[in-house]
């Protein structure tokens, strides 16, 4: 069983990412929330050597998203670009399955008619 401090750290990161997703456009939020939930669930029983890189990459994601959210404060969603490009070196470390998953995520997130048809009640 994982140490309580590790479980607390993972849970805190997970919750912080979901909070940051509240600042995304509604369709990207739905896509992002589902992806985060699936990834954290999938890695629940990951080997210790995988956990370090998993946590590091999700911490980087959280930090990057937090910076983008703060920079976008006051801007209209249509003018804000969320995300970042991956370098070839970073892509080189991915397994084939991860590259395919990333490609599917990119296609879904850039579709003009996204899978999620969610109305934003805040407007």
What do these coordinates show?
Helix 1 (4-21) runs antiparallel to helix 2 and helix 1 (4-21) packs parallel to helix 3 (48-72). The model has no long low-confidence stretch (mean pLDDT 84). The chain starts with a helix and ends in a 13-residue tail after the last helix. By secondary structure, the chain is mainly alpha-helical. 5% of the residues are buried. The chain has 5 helices and no strands.
In short:
With 123 residues, the chain is mainly alpha-helical. The protein contains five helices and no strands.
Strand content: under 5%
Average the pLDDT over all residues and give the rounded result. 84
What is the helix content? 55-70%
Order of helices and strands: HHHHH
Uncertain stretches of 5 or more adjacent residues: none
Subunit organisation of the chains: single chain
**Biggest beta-sheet profile:** none
Key traits:
65% helix, single chain, 123 residues, mainly alpha
Layout of SSEs?
Layout: H1 4-21, H2 26-42, H3 48-72, H4 88-92, H5 96-110
Helix pairs in contact: 1-2, 1-3
